[in-house]
Amino acid sequence: MSYELVGITVLWIFLYGYLIVASIDFGAGFFAFYARMTKKDHVINQLIARYLSPVWEVTNVFFVFFFVGIVGFFPETAYYYGTAMLVPASFAIILLAIRGSFYAFENYGTKQSTVYTFLYGASGLLIPASLSIALTVSEGGFIKEENGSVSLKYMELFTSPLSWSIVALSIVSILFISATFLAFYAARAKDLPALKLVRTFAMFWSTPTIIAALTTFIVLSQHNERHYENMLDLWWMFGLSVGFFLIAVWLLYRQKHYGLAFISVMMQFLFAFFGYGIGHYPYLLDPYISIHEGATHASMGIALVAAFIGGLLLLIPSLILLMKLFLFDAEYVKGRK
Amino acid sequence: MELDTVLMSRLLTAMTLGFHIIFATLGVGIPLMISIAEFIGIKKNDPHYKLLARRWTRGFIITVAVGVVTGTAIGLQLSLVWPNFMQVAGNVISLPLFMEVFAFFFEAIFLGIYLYTWDRFNNQYIHWFFSLPIIIGGGFSAVFITTVNAFMNTPQGFEIQNGTFSAVNPLAAMLNPATPTKVFHVLTSAYVTCAAILAAITAVMILKRKMTDYHKKALRLTMTLTFLFALLTALAGDFSAKFLADHQAEKLAAAEWHFETEQNADLILFGWLNEDNEPTGEIRLPGFLSFLAHGDFNAEVTGLEAFPEDEQPPLWVHYMFDLMVTIGFLLLGIALLYLLLAKMKKWNEHNKGMLYLIALSGPLAMLAIEFGWIYAEEGRQPWIIRGYMTVEEAATSSPYVTHMFFLFLALYIVLGTLCVITLRKLFRNNPAEEELEKHYPSFKKGDNE
């Protein structure tokens, strides 16, 4: 396997990791706001805070890791995406900034305020929307290059069914992933009222998730045939994805094995996300940047892979410790520590 | 229009970095102070020091949050605002950027653990132990990111073929000539600044309310640390000057208004430039620039005229350099004075004048960080990669960069204001004395708010 393939695989795994941990975070923000509005906040807000407080910073790092990594392995991406995405990415930064800092201001600082909760909830839905524009752009057709300058075709982006279906998919997926996780966490905490509420959320958001996934698939077939054909060849991955989805919904419906339900959701998105990513090969930005031509020098690529292995040896035990202390420590989850 | 986008790109980056540096500096230095306080607390079994660690940590979380989000902003902005730079230099500097993220990751994980495990372990040293990865992670983020900046000043580890980098050696690029002095200076100045700021907060508390044993101990600890790190910072500054003389003479020459290459060069303190670009109203220390640059009063120091006019940094960096150095020595002086007063039984180190001086030293230290960075960055103009790529060639061509500047300006105003408000609320109605009674004889309830 060439280093650039190792590179993109690693980065894709990290992006998947971000997808899961950020979904939990973003969705939780929205549910917290929704619960506040419907006067049910006493039921789930403590649960959410107990999980999120120790991990929100780690979530953020997953994202930083991905974009630093992609520019490192594929410097060409900086030129094209950097110039074209100045505006949408800047908005994403601002939303992330509002979210991260307001979270700290509210939780560690002052008494809770509805304005903060609103911004916290709203940014949770807007961030994925603005970040998912990068996915749309990667399909090609939204960038023009003139006189050595790259720009985004905003009109076409905003009128494209592809961009809207990707945005819709990202938002409903977030709510589904998050609700399933919170159901698992509530079941662990033996917090039955909270469990009842978040289980309803999970059941509710499962349908739009699968509908949005299908719509995106169809729209993509009209926009980028090559990608679509590649994805058809990987039909078994998407089949497995749907299979895990059905298992998750079944478990949620039967009200048991919430841990297994969440793992099924993780597997559902793992197969869909990798099927999508592998289908994209060999382009990072269709047709400007391919994985092989856009890659950095071999010496740097190998150094990055080495740094990556070294880093993981450090991170994995630390992450396991973090999860042991806060996710799998039943006493902590129940709020006794 | 083209020039405008370059100027706006520079202003946007300067603003983001100028704002981020405040929180980044706190992020590097405060964990060390917290860890030292907690260690002394456990060692001496002194609740005062333990409470000190707790209260510092509580304020620290707020600044970490702002540091994280502004750090994310600058990380993305590197590619958004300087796409041409990243396309070329990404080949050479992505290793340290990547490693910086790992260090940050490591720090983030253990920060979460440290914050939520007060009183969770029977052996108090276990909790203290979790502060070490935070110090290490924070320190190493600073080290790695500083190597990137050092590379931009003294690039090496590649060859140029047809305008692109080839034969890349990532380690050689990281370990470039500017790295050792920069890393040393960045770390020591972050530690001295944090010690000075914590001392300043204590001094203000004593001036506003009253003095307790808690405050006395806090002041003694932070002032001792200020003194130690101020000494090390001065040493690092001296190394940096010698490095500049050898490797980046135009930066030092611009800072010192040293135009002609000469032996026994004078050090110029303060003053301003008249219409003929001659220093006026300055204090001259004969031969001291030669001494600063090469450790010898008669050594030759390269003047600015040795460089082409369009490769010379702006002359106003002199003010930044002077302000940084002056504040550095002022910090050392204030800390020394305090320690001397404390040593002498007859004198009172807590007199009002002394406390006011200490209260002043904190904000001054942070200003010195800003001045120092402005000097370092403006001192390598017009280059973004010295000798290879100018700032103009590297900036984005997107016309929206002006809009983004104002958007981020608004963001930083909001973040800065809320940060101050939150920190004030956190401590104003919660004096240390009350908390001490609440936490410590009973010593049961945790601190996980």
Keywords for this entry:
heterodimer, A: 337 residues, mainly alpha, two-stranded antiparallel ribbon, 13 helices, globular, B: 449 residues, two-stranded antiparallel sheet, disordered C terminus, Cyt-d_oxidase_su2 (chain A), transmembrane helix (chain A), membrane (chain A)
Helix content of chain A: over 70%
* Helix segment tally of chain B: 15
User: How confident is the prediction overall: mean pLDDT of chain A?
Assistant: 81
Largest sheet of chain A: 2 strands, antiparallel
* Rg of chain A computed from alpha carbons, rounded to a whole number of angstroms: 20 Å
Total individual domains of chain A? 1
Question: How far apart are the termini of chain B?
Answer: 51 Å
Write up what this structure looks like.
The complex is a heterodimer of chains A (337) and B (449). Chain A has one domain. Helix content of chain A is 82%, strand content 4%. Chain A contains 13 helices and 4 strands. Chain A has a two-stranded antiparallel sheet. In chain A, strands 3-4 form a two-stranded antiparallel ribbon. Chain B is mainly alpha-helical. Helix content of chain B is 71%, strand content 6%. In chain B, the strands form 5 sheets. In chain B, strands 1-2 form a two-stranded antiparallel sheet. A two-stranded antiparallel ribbon of chain B has the order 3-8. Chain B has a two-stranded antiparallel sheet with strand order 4-7. In chain B, β9 and β10 form a beta hairpin. The interface between A and B is large, with 68 and 77 residues. Chain A: Keywords: Cell membrane, Membrane, Transmembrane, Transmembrane helix. Chain A: It is found in: Cell membrane. Chain A: This is Cytochrome d ubiquinol oxidase subunit II. Chain A: Its main location: membrane.
